Amino acid sequence: MSKVSELPKECLWRIEKEENTYAVNAMCQRIQLESDGESEFQPGHGDVLEVTNNGKVICLHAGASSSALIFVTNQCNSNCIMCPDSVKQRTRQNTITIEYLLEYVSLLPTDLTHIDITGGEPTLLKENLPVLIEKALDQAGKAEILMLSNGRSFAVRKYSQLFYPFADRKFKIEIPIHSASGEKHDFIAGCQNSFIQTIAGIHNLLDGGVEIGIRIVVSKLNYTELNSIVDFIHYEFPDIKYINLMGMEVMGNAWKNREMVWEELENLKPYLQGVLVRCFKWGIEPRLYNFPLCLFDQKYWYNYRKSISDYKIRYFEDCEKCREREQCGGFFASTFHHTKYKVRVQ
Ligand code: SF4
To answer: Which atom of ligand 1 lies closest to the CA of 292?
Structure first.
């Protein structure tokens, strides 16, 4: 018998609750846990845990959730002007190894419905990335896997071909396009030639049948040109089926550059609603993420997605009276403190 905080530190543990509570590792070693009423953390069935050297318990996956996150690296090969991470976060040495990631995935529940693979930039894992994706697809056969990438690494045709085997699996990649102008895109991505590389990368992946969705992070730098971005996507990539229009999280680089990138939500409204119509015209499904529901006229709510992670969501006091609160994704904590938006209680 052991307390959670006393579990061996050299591996990860999954909690299994039957009549008693056990911790199981990837080698199927099983340790019965004794209750630790004093501890702040009470493990739940299916939780995946890491115990640090000083006995701190980190919950990497909450067993009650049907979706999981695979965080590959804090590092990135771009430096987007509105990135919610800071330069310090993105340039810190990466300590996450492929062995650690595979061990984590092997402990995830097999009945997950969704897995996000994210970073930083996941392709910095190079040839190990397809190995990780294969492992995740095998571990949770029913799960849809979504990977976020800036797409630049896929400009190397040989590298993109490593992902072709996932074309007929439940796997897709979402890649951002910041502008129809290469110069503007590169400025927003903080990296020369990133536009050319991202466009080539998307073509390479589409050639192999990999499902791609496009993301547009809407900022002061591009909100008036959303129609031209969508026109560009339509002509350049006729196979693209959906575009996600993303509200910004005002943290990290976005906070540092807020004068340059932040635009009040109310000013975005006509452009966002206008670009929805443009997407309909081209037969592309638009989706709205990270905005308050009441920003939009009701006829566009079909395209609205509640997307902000629970622990980051904030609502204004008036929202308590709103009939749509359950459907509304509210505000990022950072946006909540920054915006002058006046909610329209429904
Ligand atoms: S009033 Fe608040 S809860 Fe209601 S839609 Fe607007 S932001 Fe959401």
So the answer is: 7
pLDDT digit string, tens, across residues 36-51: 666 667 888 999 999 9
Ligand 1 centroid to Cα of residue 316, in Å, is 8
Amino acid in the structure at residue 123: T
Distances (CA, A) of 37 to 16, 56, 140, 143: 18, 15, 33, 35
Quote the ligand 1 centre to 55 CA distance (angstroms).
41
DSSP-based three-state secondary structure for 8 = coil
Sign of CA dihedral 8, 11, 12, 16: negative
CA dihedral 304, 344, 323, 248 (to 10 degrees): 40
Model pLDDT for residues 97-131, shown as the tens digit of each residue: 999 999 999 999 999 999 999 999 999 999 999 99
Place of tokens 């915006």: 339
Domains and CATH numbers, the chain: 4-49 (no CATH), 67-287 (3.20.20.70)
pTM above 0.70, yes or no: yes
